What does this fold into?
Amino acid sequence: MLTETDVSQLDPTGLQRQRRHLQRLKNEGIFRKTVLVHEDCAPYIDKLKRHFRYPDSAPIFREFADRLEKVKPINVAQVSQLSPFRYPGGKTWLVPNIRELILALNKKPRHFIEPFAGGGIVGLSVAAEKLADHVVLAELDDGVAAVWEAILTNPEILCDRILAFNLTQDSARRILEESETGIQQRAFQTVLRNRVQHGGILAPGASLIKNGENGKGISSRWYPQTLVKRIRLIYLMRNNISFIHGDGFEVVRAYQNNSNSFFFIDPPYTAGGKKAGKRLYLHNTIDHEYLFLLMSKVKGNFVMTYDDSDSVRKLARNFRFKVTLIPMKNTHHQVMMELLITKS
It folds into this structure.
């Protein structure tokens, strides 16, 4: 194959011959791809070159690519952000895995149910990509629930407050200390708290950001225009999303006999004595054994996510669930391992 430099030096007749040659190759399904290759990888790519022209090699390359993709940590920064919340335990990194699992089903789920929604990034992604006919988000926390209710009913009140708010340490404290006077006030307080407290922690005891990123202080996580854009985008999807302010267990029971439902279960990580969930969430008391029992009875498909621990693995074995260890890369670029638990 001639390089671009060689082609530029051809006379008109030679150029026509080269173009005809490229067209014949294209008709055979062979075309040119330009890729960037690290020098350490180049020798191995050269050994594979002779296989690239033969369609019989496609299954081998596909299997190889799939294996590489499964072991590569997913970078949170590389996945589209839809949620107005920032959560320490957010599942943005998991969206590609959920997408793959749903697309592998024989039929699009009628309902995608996220009974411990929190920031709801997985359900929002499913709704945006129309991977299910309808998305059901549920959350017990009053503040988080107020945000979802405000967004899905009358978002412009919340948007106007976000855009007009002049954020300082004093103004933030003043708003957070005010008595709640309704859904819209509670929603704004929750969005503000999520953005100005360390780590986005909503549970009592979290302190306000002081230094923040790049010396921006309390404003380092306050992006009014971005927040409003996300809120308005969610509102546009409101016909495909239902929100339930209530207990996640009850929501699972309500849909457990629907064989065309897909559950995404992401409870607070308190199994095995883990403290993270207790520190991050107001409602953190979860009967994990009962949750596993409940999921063993659902007729639809499900994915559960848990921190890797012996107690969780034991529960999965007891109920004969399949466990997959998934690497993820957090916002500090640390690779961490989590468990994906599905039906066997």
